[in-house]
Amino acid sequence: MSRSSKYPEQFRKDAVELVRSSDRPLRQVARDLGVNHETLRNWVKIAERGQAKPSDAASAASEDELRALRKRVAELELEKEILRKAAAYFAKEMGR
After folding, report:
1. What are the residue ranges spanned by the domains of the chain?
2. Does the global pTM surpass 0.85?
3. Which residue stretches, if any, does this entry annotate as coiled coil (predicted)?
4. Dist CA 96 CA 86 (whole Å)
């Protein structure tokens, strides 16, 4: 959310989860939490949009991170193979 809220993000997430998991009406959950029902309804709508389709920026960032991690794994596997061969070579030399 770009604008600040008087409610912490974790509180908003917990409130949305409570609405989803409870069989109580949204208005009652909002009343119990001391939140305006329209505010809570907006949080639920925002959360549903967030789950339906991740933002393009977040998706691109995830793909970039995945690409970087795969590259790092390939580098580490190559290093491991080099070290394995070196260890075998030196084990043979020491065995003479």
Report:
1. 1-53, 57-96
2. no
3. 59-86
4. 16
Tens of pLDDT, residues 59-70: 788 888 999 999
Q: Kindly state the tokens that stand for 15.
A: 């409130």
Torsion of CA 38, 11, 46, 4, to 10 degrees: 90
d(CA 49, CA 46): 5
The fraction of the chain above a pLDDT of 90, given in percent, is 67
With respect to CATH, is domain 1-53 assigned 1.10.10.10?
Answer: yes
Nearest to 35 by CA among 45, 26, 48, 47: 26
Q: What is the 3-state secondary structure (H, E, C) of 64-83?
A: HHHHHHHHHHHHHHHHHHHH
